[in-house]
Amino acid sequence: ISLHCSVCSHYSNTFDVFCDLSLPIPKKSDIGRTVTLRECLDLFSQEEKLDQENSPMCERCNRRTESTKRLTIQRFPRILVIHLNRFAMSRYSISKSTVPVSFPLNGLDLGPFGPVDCGPVLYDLYAVCNHSGTVNMGHYTAACREEECWCYYNDSWCVQFFEKLQSNQAYVLFYELKSCTITRK
Ligand SMILES: [Zn+2]
Q1: If you measure from the C-alpha of residue 118 to the centroid of ligand 1, how many angstroms do you get, rounded to a whole number?
Q2: Is residue 28 situated within a structural domain?
């Protein structure tokens, strides 16, 4: 997390260790079509303006100032778990987004979200967890890659399948690092 103070222009960096990325989903009304995983990642990493009240202390001003916050990934995990945050909490209720999110099966590139000059960082999908139903009542199923095909698990039954991996029920995506050209300092 990089913070930029609007008063003295001081930059400070903090590091959070993460095991999974919880991504926001753009609202359907704004889009009216399938959104891509890339759009969720962009929304997640985009610069965010923090007002004085919500800003952390600026190290140099020694007080809370307006600042901007930006998220980048500094170290890429071998296993990447992406949680599509379909459940939005408002003041009075929780709602579930059923926007279809398309995601790549191979070669998801997280390089653009890494450090500057970081090359492509490619991930391949190996499992998907789906959630069907509503906020109050739902059911989980899973799809896992096995050798060259995909198996679909729903309670006690399991079938092989090749399509329909992408749906508006995809909830958690499991990716494995394929290649990493990042140079470590
Ligand atoms: Zn400052």
Answers
A1: 28
A2: yes
Query: Over the stretch 82-132, which tens digit does the pLDDT of each residue have?
Result: 999 988 877 788 888 888 899 999 999 999 998 888 889 999 999 999 999
CA 56 to chain centre: 24
> Number of structural domains, the chain?
1
Distance 47 CA to ligand 1 centre (A): 17
What is the pLDDT averaged over residues 156-172? 83
Which amino acid is located at 140 in the chain? Y
Centre of ligand 1 from the C-alpha of residue 41, in Å = 28
User: Worst-scoring range by mean pLDDT, 10-19, 114-123, 146-155?
Assistant: 10-19
Assigned domain for 16 exists = no
User: Do the domain assignments include residue 170?
Assistant: yes
Give me ligand 1 centre to Cα 116, in Å: 24
> How many angstroms separate the alpha carbon of residue 11 from the centre of ligand 1?
8
User: Separation of 170 CA from ligand 1 center, angstroms?
Assistant: 42
